[in-house]
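Lecture notes, unit on protein representations.

Consider one protein chain, 165 amino acids long.
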Amino acid sequence: MAEEKKNILTYEGLKKLEDELYDLKTNKRREVAQKIKEAREQGDLSENAEYDAAKDEQRDLESRIHEIEQILKNVEVIDEESFDSETINFGCTVHFEDMESKQEYVYKLSGSTEADILGGSISNESPIGAKLMGARVGQVITVDAPNGKYNYKILDFYIKQDEEA
C-alpha cells in the first residue's frame, strides 16, 4: 500500500485549519441544523426550496469538515525557525523580479495545502515554488513554463516571526 502524501503546514496554517474545523463543527453545524428545522416546519418538503438549499449547505459543510480532518490526519508541521536563515524555505516570504518584464512579486512559500495564489502564497510543489526552495538573495532561478522559460532574480526574503509565539 502506498504511503499517503504528507500535508506540509506551517504552525500558522495548522492553527488556521484547526480554528476553521472548530468553527464548522460548533457554529456552522448548529446554524445549518436550524435552517433545516425551520424549512421542515414549512410543510411539504418535495417543493421546498429552502429545505433543498439547507440540505445542500449541510452536504458542503460536512464535505469541508471531512476534507480538513483528512488534511490534519496526515499533517507534517514545519518549524520555520529551524531553517537556515541564508536560504529560502517553507514559511519565507520571497520578493523576486521577472528579469524580462521587471515586474516584482511577493509571495509566501507554503505547502500545497496552504497555497493560495490570490492570498499571496504559493506551493513549494509549484514550478516556481520548487525553484525558490533553497535559493539565496541575488540568485537567478529559471522556471520552465508551458509557454517558455522565465528567469527571476531573488531580491529579498524573510521569515515572519509570529508575535503570538
